[in-house]
Amino acid sequence: MKNLINRYATPLTTGFFIVSMVSGVALFFHWAPGLFHGMHEWLSMVLLVPFVLHLWKNWGPMMGYVKRKSLFAPVLLSLLVAVPFAIPSGGGRQGGNPAFAVVQLVTNAPLADSAALFKSTPDELITRLRRQGLSVNSSSDTLNQIAQSAQLQPAQLIAQLMNERR
Known about the structure:
mainly alpha; 72% helix
């Protein structure tokens, strides 16, 4: 076992690090994220095994870094650089799919503003909604309000309006 660790720990760590590095660079520049995302996540997890073996193999030198106190500054610097990425940005809101953000904007906008998205004037949109049996008071109503009063999901209401125009 010790021969296996001595022979393969560092080369495997190097190989999986290269894979993680290449896939990480590809993800950073948005090159084929569908191809690289799973590879990066899973093989970075696999990288932990040879890393632990490498650490085990080099435990003596690692303890030398600890005794000389030359390990602490690089580890602390690494953690400090990582912290900003762990703190949510945007006032505490999580990022997400931009399509969902657009749907939120559309469903919270007054009908007067969202009507054009459905190839209608505000009055035409109100008429279309009322024809579906929905309660609409004015062009200042939102699709969210209308959907809630009809016990629908806003996305269902949008789908109905879009299907009606096909």
